[in-house]
């Protein structure tokens, strides 16, 4: 029975400059592109740099299992949208992932559920794997967060065709209040909401539910089996920290305790 991969992704947001982005990526390519768990697919990695660095980052990870993607795409086919980037161009360049619906896009750029749904449909149509960011705005009980997050997932997939709904999908559960904070949400909160999302996505067996929001070394180990991976930010800016988290994932995968089996991904 195949073990579903533990998925680890990082977005640099707008923190890194061009040279720093390439330095991080070359370091990770050196450290991890030949890591056994990465090579054999037990640990799946993706990196989301700023747009100007996409081409060299794609080159850096060419012929490695590390996936690369955009942090955004525009909610329309290619056309007269000055300053924007199409899903078609991301796919043409060789991106495998695209981030959609991050809390910062919602808060700073007024992206709403309708925009997120359109972007998700376009991403899937282009064969990109959406890194669909969802999460409750305010700290509260897990049951309320589950309701809010389930609504966001349903809304995001509302325009996708049945066939597109069976395509790979990464659901990044990021409570807004844990992003950019000093520490992640509690283990109990993360576990409860991610389980609620797994249950909700039972008809979408290729969906992976990962956690983001001040995630760093040790969190994956403490969450063993409760999430399908992590969506990392600041606490993986140090390549050594990212490497440590990949090693944690590798160990968990070896113990068979971190990710669901492919055939029971909806359990
Ligand atoms: O894109 C990444 C997430 O928003 C988490 O960021 P953070 O770990 O810096 O809070």
UniProtKB/TrEMBL annotation:
It catalyses: D-glyceraldehyde 3-phosphate = dihydroxyacetone phosphate. One of its GO terms (molecular function) is isomerase activity. InterPro entries: Aldolase_TIM (IPR013785), TIM_sf (IPR035990), Triosephosphate_isomerase (IPR000652). It is an enzyme of class 5 (isomerase). Pathway: Carbohydrate degradation; glycolysis; D-glyceraldehyde 3-phosphate from glycerone phosphate: step 1/1; Carbohydrate biosynthesis; gluconeogenesis. Its main location: cytoplasm. The keyword Isomerase applies. It is found in: Cytoplasm. CDD domains: TIM (cd00311). Its EC number is 5.3.1.1. It comes from the Bacteria. The keyword Cell cycle does not apply. Homodimer. Belongs to the triosephosphate isomerase family. This is Triosephosphate isomerase.
